[in-house]
Amino acid sequence: MKIKVCLTCSQCLLLMFAKYMIWFATPDLYVGAGRCRLSKVGAGRRPPPARVRVAVRLRPFVDGTAAAGEPPCVRGLDSCSLEIANWRNHQETLKYQFDAFYGERSSQQDVYAGSVQPILRHLLEGQNASVLAYGPTGAGKTHTMLGSPEQPGVIPRALMDLLQLTREEGGEGRPWALSVTMSYLEIYQEKVLDLLDPASGDLVIREDCRGNILIPGLTQKPITSFADFERHFLPASRNRTVGATRLNQRSSRSHAVLLVKVDQRERLAPFRQREGKLYLIDLAGSEDNRRTGNKGLRLKESGAINSSLFVLGKVVDALNQGLPRVPYRDSKLTRLLQDSLGGSAHSILIANIAPERRFYLDTVSALNFAARSKEVINRPFTNESLQLRVLAPIKLSQKELVGPSEAKRARGPEEEEIGSPEPTAAPASASQKLSPLQKLSSMDPAVLERLLSLDRLLGSQGSQGTHGLNTPRRERMVLMKTMEEKDLEIERLKMKQKELEAKVLAQEAVDPKDKENSSPAVLRPLARRTVTVAKPLKKAVVMPLQLIQEQTASPNAEIHILKKKGRKRKLESLDASEPEEKAEDCWELQISPELLAHGRQKILDLLNEGSARDLRSLQRIGQKKAQLIVGWRELHGPFSQVEDLERVEGISGKQMESFLKANILGLAACHRCDTS
Ligand code: ADP
Ligand code: MG
């Protein structure tokens, strides 16, 4: 059940709850509806933009370079800007402005509190957030993200705060029950490796129907305390692929991604569910192979790192230029970051730079990348849904999304862990308490009344109505159009039936003898013809042709077909055995003046008084012409004679003539039938 709601509107919430109750009563109406249950809150509206925030951190000199008296090539100007020497012109400096600049004296706490801590609250709103450390190898990315036991970086600080926040917000008596899970992976040489389960091979990155990026089969560990986090994280960090380069003894050879998910379940109706994801990413550095001294495997690794960072640059450029295609899929890194760059996350990019002159070119390129990233606009939204099955485990949706190949990869005991990630008893016990029926009985009577009336309203539409509610808009339009066409078709068939009935009556009226013969056996061929009467007008003329042969003997004959119009035939040659339709094309009618006048009068009356529908009962008048006639009448008043029809725009003189021929006889015959 895909639901779009606005959280501020009580009617929407009521409708959601009503739908929920109906689902509970008639789950089979919603077969297959459980696939994409989370929805973007306010998906109807465009989420407000949130620019990617960019901070630059300059690390201090390391390895005693400062002691050698080397001046830094970068200098901070204030808390947001810095300057770097211009290699093209030594008299000049290049100036950059960012959301924050952290100088060499800044502490881990400064960086964390200034740029990372403020976005954590969005996770509890069901929104995504990401922190990326970018910069050349040895510039301090890992120091910023991970730090050391003495100087913990962004990751431990954020985890500490997040766990504290979830404990406070999800405590007993609070409206939401919260749970936190963690996953840890690295992208090494374009392979996605699960650091919590190094034995698993390369994992696939998928996108769900809401555009969320996910990795089926990735281990998720529930964590309730910082000790829990450390228990999983520290050994996993040792699994990370590192190697020594000339720039950094323990250079990160891969992009490391820590994913922390915060799941929320509302304890009371309407039992909403939210999911916020936090990506903490320590990117591998861009490498200049001349300086790293890379050869063999290191060179190959470096190629993969460089190419993924190159794609990252292309993604940022495409987003900035508003290109229709953003090359997220060109590398695993950008595919994973699709959520964070130009996507749905609150994103922070921390560009790490080094003060040493040997880093100069890398520093300039890192600063340029950071300046381009600053222009990228994200649109964070809240991932929210109704808990369709109150007792279902949170990870049901994740499991549903695991494809057959991924399901194979998901291992036995691990799968159990993925499948039941609720670490605390609180959410489970809370959910066990939740029964919509119990809540209903203890509900405010006014609310209950409104819900029941909504329910009645939906019920009164019958199953068709309920299906209509679930039918996507485009499909609904197609169905409605088909129904309209069917109605028109029925209408047309009814008209044809009427015409045929009129003809039969006319035939009976003209010759009572014929009436005797018009036993079902005689009428049957006519009735059968209704199926094939593609040209009913011709038949209307043919019938009098048959009559005339008998009527030539009658002195009271009122309808005559005498004149030869075509060159090939004469009246005398008219033989009943001859094909009727050919004859019709060649002969014109002569009708007694009295009947003609009557027919004309009838047509005139119909033209002046008949509705568009009545007019369509006339020969040669379809829907369009009927409307034209009614429109003309409204504009110019009644028709004084039938020939006025010619004045109606869209009806030519020739058409009018054939209209008269086709109609007068039928109506005259009807008159005769009436009077006899
Ligand atoms: P990267 O991950 O970008 O390759 P590292 O984080 O490993 O770089 O940093 C390289 C070296 O610089 C490490 O020895 C680290 O301790 C040191 N370092 C980085 N940033 C700082 C800082 N802000 N203060 C002190 N030392 C730092
Ligand atoms: Mg590193």
TrEMBL record:
SUPFAM superfamilies: P-loop containing nucleoside triphosphate hydrolases, RuvA domain 2-like. InterPro entries: Hlx-hairpin-Hlx_DNA-bd_motif (IPR003583), Kinesin-like_fam (IPR027640), Kinesin_motor_CS (IPR019821), Kinesin_motor_dom (IPR001752), Kinesin_motor_dom_sf (IPR036961), P-loop_NTPase (IPR027417), RuvA_2-like (IPR010994). Residues 51-376 form the Kinesin motor domain. It is found in: Cytoplasm, Cytoskeleton. Pfam families: HHH_3, Kinesin. Residues 483-510 form a coiled coil. ATP binds at residues 135-142. It comes from the Eukaryota. Residues 420-439 have a biased composition (Low complexity). Residues 402-439 are annotated as: Disordered. Keywords: ATP-binding, Coiled coil, Cytoplasm, Cytoskeleton, Isopeptide bond, Microtubule, Motor protein, Nucleotide-binding, Phosphoprotein. PANTHER family: CHROMOSOME-ASSOCIATED KINESIN KIF4A-RELATED, KINESIN-LIKE PROTEIN. Kinesin family member that is involved in spindle formation and the movements of chromosomes during mitosis and meiosis. Binds to microtubules and to DNA. Plays a role in congression of laterally attached chromosomes in NDC80-depleted cells. Belongs to the TRAFAC class myosin-kinesin ATPase superfamily. Kinesin family. This is Kinesin-like protein. The lineage of its organism: Eukaryota, Metazoa, Chordata, Craniata, Vertebrata.
